[in-house]
Amino acid sequence: MWTAIAALTGLLAIVHRKRMIRAFDGAIVATTQAVLIGLCFATIPDPPPELATGLLTMAL
Predict the structure, then answer these.
(1) Closest by CA position to 32, among listed 6, 58, 12
(2) DSSP code of 37?
(3) Is residue 52 helix, strand or coil?
(4) From CA 36, how far away is CA 42, in angstroms rounded?
(5) What is the pLDDT of residues 1-53, one digit of tens each?
(6) Confidence of residue 57 (pLDDT cuts 50, 70, 90)
(7) Source organism's superkingdom (predicted)?
């Protein structure tokens, strides 16, 4: 019985680790996109609507 509990606990830890890595990757991507969009809007004072729409669409 204890072996089954230990195996289940180990499996849950592996699944949790995979989920946390996936969430961290998503956070890195979102932060990178936000920084690049911010740099673009800071560099180009009045970006053309096509550029602004393209950047925001790409971010989603």
Answers:
(1) 58
(2) H
(3) helix
(4) 10
(5) 667 777 768 888 888 889 999 999 989 988 888 888 888 888 887 878 887 77
(6) confident
(7) Bacteria
- In the DSSP assignment, the letter for residue 45 is S
> CA-CA distances (angstroms) from residue 20 to 16, 17, 25?
6, 5, 9
**Residue-wise burial string across 25-50, b where 16 or more C-beta atoms lie within 10 A, e elsewhere:** eeeeeeeeeeeebeeeeeeeeeeeee
Per-residue tokens: 1? 């019985």
* pTM strictly above 0.70: no
Among candidate residues 32, 22, 21, the one with its CA nearest the CA of residue 59: 32
